[in-house]
Design brief:
Strand order of the largest sheet: 1-2-4-3
Order of helices and strands: EHEHEEH
Helix content: 25-40%
CATH topology: Aminopeptidase
Number of domains: 1
Oligomer: single chain
Number of strands: 4
Number of helices: 3
Distance between the termini: 34 Å
């Protein structure tokens, strides 16, 4: 597992959702993945969390499986999601374009 980065938690207080801050956290985690030499990024997400799933898909994550009863609070299943190889030219280009758009959206946050 030395070539993968595993995101364990991204969370925001409900008052701050929908402002691009979760996306900012995700882009920073992907940047850290580059810094540590990872080739892929993986995470689990609640099957009911469509907003997060859409954000992850935007950044190239794809479903790779299911973890049954993964969440201890309510036994909800989790989707396992992985990126493609983040060092590929296509991924790097798309990631940079998305980061540039986010930077414009957030301004000088």
């Amino acid at each position: 597992m030395v070539d993968e980065a595993h995101v364990t938690t991204i969370a925001l207080h409900p008052d701050y959702r929908g402002r691009g801050l979760g996306e900012l956290l995700l882009t920073n985690l992907i940047d850290i993945s580059y810094d540590i030499g990872a080739k892929w990024v993986t995470l689990e997400v609640r099957v009911s969390n469509y907003i997060a799933q859409n954000l992850y898909r935007k950044y190239g994550f794809r479903e790779a499986g299911l973890r049954h009863r993964y969440y201890s609070d309510n036994q909800e299943d989790a989707l396992i999601m992985w990126t493609e190889e983040i060092n590929s030219p296509a991924y790097r280009e798309q990631f940079q374009e998305l980061k540039d758009l986010l930077k414009k959206k957030l301004g000088s946050f």
